[in-house]
Design brief:
Protein name: FAD/NAD(P)-binding domain-containing protein
Mean pLDDT: 91
CATH architecture of the largest domain: 3-Layer(bba) Sandwich
CATH superfamily of the largest domain: FAD/NAD(P)-binding domain
Helix content: 25-40%
Number of strands: 21
Strand content: 15-25%
CATH topology of the largest domain: FAD/NAD(P)-binding domain
GO molecular function: flavin adenine dinucleotide binding; N,N-dimethylaniline monooxygenase activity; NADP binding
Keywords: FAD, Flavoprotein, Oxidoreductase
Number of domains: 2
Structural class: alpha/beta
Shape: globular
InterPro entries: FAD-bind_Monooxygenase_sf, FAD/NAD-bd_sf, Flavin_mOase-like
Number of helices: 15
Low-confidence stretches: 1-26
Distance between the termini: 40 Å
Cofactor: FAD
């Protein structure tokens, strides 16, 4: 289901990069995230924090609770169904939004599209046969997710407009208590044996730490909450940010503006997109020839897996060539020498997310567009004060609208949910310096809590959906063991051994030292303010599959009690 189309006209638009901000600045707590997601405050905070002392109603008791109905939640639910251990009635998916799709529901800004090839941005077992372009557009991806979930009847076990506020481990009963709020702020308590977080990290906007945002008297919104009802014709607008979201927006709006200004500290690398539309013969073959979609997917994945690691390895010839390719595009598309130097990147290829756009530089080169390499000083009632980084001179520029393209909080996980484990361990305290998880899918001191797309779960040299499929299959294996032990009369729980978890995460860091984003001079959302890499993994798909295709019980702390001692 695609959103209704509304015309957006813009005039006088300014784009301001939020790269002056630190990467952990402007994090959202649970209450703020709820407010920005359209949820009313809960009437009593104790409803979130306290564990119910009475039995949970059977209607709200499930074997598995999945938090999130994006691609990770969909894959996890299907993995559980496919394992044969879980039926629809044994699990519930809580989704904050009104429909399946996760980040692709929230992000609907002009030009929203994916920079992963469409045949790669599908699972290996449910390949979309309806993509029309090499790179998929937002509405196509959303339709793919809807079809994916519908064909597996996941609506039977999903509660939309349901925001998980807290998850608390009950050591006596060896269950998770999950507090879920609806849009009106009403809280229900659920219980489950296994909790699986599939929230991802591209739905929690980050605003940066430039002061004064709350005093601005014009209109403002984040790219993840695009105002389709707002007519920007004749307005003076600032778009704060020049990452992938802002960079996709700029070409879409520049011709509708009277003026567009871009505040940019660290210019991104931009290479040709190379997009094209599939012809009718190809689409016919995708739909009707058996295994043709699988062959196409494998054909596109092969060079990514073969050369991907070299592309992001510092001083590798492929990385140098890719960096030069970006500079060549800059030279070809930006004729003004002053503007060209303003836009010249200093980082290596994939230090941070590379832009795959043909229209980015031409948009910035238009006469009604200005690029500023200033530092943001503060927001004011009327606009933004910035400082020239050479002279230090400050200037205030007035705007009617500020659009925040400051990205998302990729350096932290689950910061909008209260999560407590063994002995009351708080996930935010445990991950205060940096998040750590074994294989990116489970954390010590949090029994029977698993993740898809947890810390260090992305490799840029394979399909991300294949990695998350591995995680979903591992989680299904663990749940199968939990059920098997229960049939033997024991309540069973597992979480990573802390020593093993720590050693694994040290390896994750060490094995990424050769990649461009690990360079101390590189500022990227792949790592936090302390330089700890939180987003990416160093393993190839085959290496990661080898790690996760079975459970090594020596790596796990195990908890077991006779069932009568754990009755609800």
């Amino acid at each position: 289901m695609a959103p209704a189309k509304t015309q957006t006209n813009l005039k006088n638009i300014v784009t301001v990069t939020g790269e002056e901000q630190t990467f952990n600045a402007g994090l959202l707590g649970g209450d703020e995230y709820a407010r920005l997601s359209g949820y009313a405050p809960v009437s009593d905070p104790k409803l979130i924090e306290d564990v119910p002392q009475t039995s949970i109603h059977p209607h709200r008791r499930r074997r598995v609770v999945i938090v999130g109905g994006g691609v990770n939640g969909i894959q996890q639910a299907i993995g559980l169904l496919g394992s044969g251990h879980i039926k629809h009635e044994d699990m519930v998916i809580f989704e904050t939004m009104r429909e399946f799709g996760g980040t692709w529901v929230k992000n609907s800004y002009p030009g929203c599209a994916c920079d992963v090839p469409s045949m790669v941005y599908t699972t290996s077992y449910y390949i979309s046969k309806s993509y029309r372009n090499f790179f998929p557009k937002r509405d196509e991806i959303l339709q793919y997710y809807h079809n994916f979930a519908r064909d597996y009847q996941l609506d039977r076990c999903t509660r939309f407009n349901s925001l998980v506020r807290s998850c608390v481990w009950d050591e006596d009963r060896m269950i998770w208590h999950v507090a879920v709020a609806d849009k009106a702020g009403k809280v229900e308590h659920w219980a489950c044996d296994v909790l699986i977080h599939c929230t991802g990290n591209l739905d929690r906007p980050k605003y940066g730490n430039t002061p004064g945002r709350e005093v601005f008297k014009g209109d403002s919104w984040h790219t993840a909450d695009w105002r389709h009802d707002y007519d920007l014709t004749g307005k003076t607008v600032a778009v704060v940010g020049c990452g992938p979201s802002a960079a996709q927006i700029i070409p879409e709006i520049v011709d509708k503006t009277k003026h567009l200004t871009v505040y940019m500290r660290n210019p991104p690398l931009c290479i040709p997109r190379g997009d094209y539309t599939y012809n009718s013969l190809f689409r016919f073959a995708m739909k009707w020839i058996p295994y043709f979609p699988n062959l196409v997917r494998a054909y596109i994945l092969w060079p990514i897996e073969k050369y991907g690691m070299r592309l992001v390895t510092e001083n590798d010839k492929l990385n140098e060539d890719a960096t030069q390719k970006a500079h060549k595009q800059l030279e070809q598309q930006v004729k003004d020498p002053v503007l060209r130097e303003k836009l010249r990147p200093t980082a290596k290829y994939w230090c941070k997310r590379v832009l795959l756009l043909d229209t980015f530089y031409p948009a910035l080169s238009k006469p009604n567009c200005t690029v500023l390499r200033d530092h943001l000083v503060s927001y004011t009632e009327g606009g933004i004060i910035s400082a020239d980084k050479t002279t230090g001179k400050q200037e205030e520029r007035k705007y009617d609208v500020v659009i925040y393209g400051t990205g998302f909080n990729n350096a932290q996980y689950l910061e909008h949910i209260t999560v407590r484990g063994v002995d009351g361990a708080d996930i935010h305290t445990q991950w205060k310096d940096h998040p750590e998880a074994l294989y990116g899918l489970a954390a010590s001191r949090f029994p029977n809590m698993f993740m898809c797309f947890g810390p260090n779960s992305v490799g840029f040299w394979s399909s991300p959906l294949d990695t998350w499929q591995n995680q979903a299959e591992f989680n299904a294996m663990a749940i199968g063991e939990i059920i098997r032990r229960e049939k033997q009369g024991n309540k069973f729980a597992m979480c990573p051994n802390r020593r093993v978890e720590e050693e694994y995460n040290q390896l994750v860091q060490k094995n990424q030292e050769r990649y461009t984003w690990a360079n101390p001079s590189c500022h990227s959302y792949y790592k936090n303010d302390g330089g700890w890499i939180t987003f990416t993994m160093p393993w190839s798909h085959s290496e990661y599959h080898q790690m996760t295709h079975k459970i090594n019980w020596e790596e796990w702390d195990l908890y077991e009690k006779p069932l009568p001692a754990c009755k609800l």
